[in-house]
Amino acid sequence: MKIVFMGTPDFAVPALKKLAADGHEIALVVTKPDAMKGRGNKVQASAVKECALALSLPVSQPEKVKGNTAFIEQLQALAPDAVVVIAYGKILPKEILEIPLHGCLNVHGSILPRHRGAAPIQWTILAGDEEGGVSIMQMDEGMDTGDVLAESRVPVDAHNAEELFDILSVKGADLIAETLAKIEAGEQITAVPQEDALATYAPMITKKDGLLDFGRPAAELERRVRGLYPWPGTYTYLDGQPFKIWTAGLAEGTPGAAPGTVLRADREGILIACGEGALLAKEVQAPGKKRMAADAYLKGHSIEKGTVLG
């Protein structure tokens, strides 16, 4: 099939590689413009662009797609059988949705209609869902509201967001490849309308989402540590300075202890009282320091029982 592929981050790369390896004609790869990233503010290409160039595929990086006549005419001239969209980062207007013969197919990182929006994988963990997954959606003009053509589910277990991203990126690649193979073979695919009443939303994650509120249950905070790993990460304040918590577990608390109070700090970690239960910080990072196991940090820094974080 002739395909236009639209995507930007690492999550989309396995699918691009898979579709190219399956012999599809990737007529164009569309990704967001290069942007400044990192501490040095160096201009970097997206992961999808780097992959496309490695595969010798043509790349387009329009600043905008809505109202971009030249770009829309370019897509019309290509006359693709399908447009595959994976975390592209821009909303497609009706003019583009109507171009491909088989429409625009989106690989979304949740079981729709749950977690529509920009950060479905993080919110799958934050919400405490037992299952995550990917959905292949026939795109329409709404925000992740199109009919679902296929889905694949996985247990969330104790995965952090980075681990779940890796798992679902491969699942998504396999699932879009299978879906396109069925379309190409003329097989009947049942398009299942989403139940809007069951929809939940997964808004974009920001740095402030990483601040831990120890008044909340420890189980919720442990999910936040996993769900926001590695970016933006979670943190509290120690002596007025940001104190990152990279990994954590759950433990029994002390009845009546004020949330944020350090119950103990030893080789097992830093045990912090929460609204319900306690959070055991296992890997931490102080300002200007490397991340390290909590017991290693405590060898050079004393945190007394009764210290209040936050």
Write a short abstract of this structure.
With 310 residues, the protein is of the alpha/beta class. The chain is 25% helix and 28% strand.
Structural write-up:
The mean pLDDT is 97. This protein has 310 residues and is of the alpha/beta class. It folds into two domains: 2-202, Rossmann fold; 207-300, Formyl transferase, C-terminal domain (Methionyl-tRNA Fmet Formyltransferase, Chain A, domain 2, Roll), CATH 3.10.25.10. The chain has eight helices and 17 strands. The N and C termini lie far apart (55 Å). A seven-stranded mixed sheet has the order 5-2-1-6-7-9-10.
Strand order of the largest sheet: 5-2-1-6-7-9-10
Q: Report the β-strand fraction as a percent range.
A: 25-35%
Topology, number of strands: 17
Q: Looking at this structure, what is the CATH superfamily of the largest domain? A: Formyl transferase, N-terminal domain
Shape: elongated
CATH topology name of the largest domain, in short, is Rossmann fold
Mean pLDDT: 97
List SSEs in N-to-C order: EHEEEHEHEHEEHEEHEHEEEEEEH
- Detail the poorly predicted runs: none
Overall number of domains: 2
List keywords for this structure.
2 domains; Methionyl-tRNA Fmet Formyltransferase, Chain A, domain 2; elongated; 310 residues; alpha/beta
